[in-house]
Amino acid sequence: MQILLVALGGACGAVSRYLVGNVVGKALGSSLPYGTFIINIIGCFFMGLLMTLIVEKQQLAAAWRLLLCVGFLGGFTTFSSFGYESFSLLSSGRLLDAFGYAGGSVILGLLAATVGVYLARLF
What we know:
Layout: H1 2-28, H2 34-56, H3 62-76, H4 79-91, H5 95-122
């Protein structure tokens, strides 16, 4: 059942990402990745909201975390997990870990994308 909740949420999140990205791209143009930017911000907002309601306040059953946070928001944007995890580290006073995680994710992510592009261009 847990896998089904994640899969259902992930499918809906991925479709939503595609639709929102298209709408935003048409509305704002494609000179910058506005769609991805807006999707990431929306995802972070809802991850913070839902995790607080589900985990902290226990106002929703734990299954909603699988469907909405892991599944839907995971399919919509993994940046929402990154944002919430960075916040969790900061709010627990683990500043070095938070900045290492956030900075490392951005820097190593850019480096990994660069290496991937260069490797793909070799073939």
